[in-house]
């Protein structure tokens, strides 16, 4: 990785709030230790320019990762890292590597327009944890005009990355809840349509985003129980 992180006291989430949609992982709440099925969702390109490729960096405590089989206009490639300690599959085979990153690259000039969004699907095993524990992912999004995003900023950390024309913004996250979701069913959820990512606690943030994005996301979170 080309960037470093320095701890800072300030909570940077507030600064990143609700200017434009952020890259997210959907659903953004899940059961600790579960087999998760979700997607990288890129809501826009780079200042009008379409997205050509997207890389998802898998955190150390997410294993058994697979990108969804893809017959569409994207090629999918992965990098591996050692799995420590190795695990034994049901077949008896010893598994000593796991996926470290997935890159989806547009084929033949295909891309996601700035006016469209796309879900890049994958699955993986989430770590155990208690309600409110957060699993952060980093995403690098490259656009046709040479600009890019690093969706890698975490609360209390200061990410620096000297790549030219790169915007650093908040890292997408999945928050762990034993019931698989952070909110109770709310018939009015989603009415306002605003996506406010402000707030100082992860639970609050997820609640706000979920409430803003709406009941369909809530339904997805429940579906993945
Ligand atoms: C995994 O096991 C294979 C077969 O024993 C070995 O060749 C390879 O070096 C191992 N890789 C790692 C990362 O340990
Ligand atoms: C996952 O690993 C990261 C990096 O070690 C750690 O900060 C985080 O707390 C872990 N999350 C869970 C839910 O275990
Ligand atoms: C990703 O997209 C950028 C911008 O178009 C391009 O420069 C880069 O070569 C692409 N990477 C791959 C692996 O295709
Ligand atoms: C960065 O953006 C500027 C202005 O759009 C452009 O002239 C330059 O070529 C870009 N640099 C890279 C590395 O894409
Ligand atoms: C992050 O680091 C940069 C460069 O050192 C600095 O200018 C900036 O003020 C820092 N941001 C915060 C929130 O500390
Ligand atoms: C799931 O659990 C969290 C944490 O205990 C709670 O805040 C939330 O309301 C629960 N959601 C539902 C749908 O019960």
Automatic annotation (TrEMBL):
Protein name (database record): YncI copper-binding domain-containing protein
Biased composition (Low complexity): 189-201
Organism lineage string: Eukaryota, Fungi, Fungi incertae sedis, Chytridiomycota, Chytridiomycota incertae sedis
Keywords: Signal
Secretion signal span: 1-21
Domain (YncI copper-binding) ranges: 22-161
Keyword Signal among record annotations: yes
S-adenosyl-L-methionine recorded as keyword: no
Region annotated Disordered, chain positions: 181-201
Pfam families xrefs: DUF1775 (PF07987)
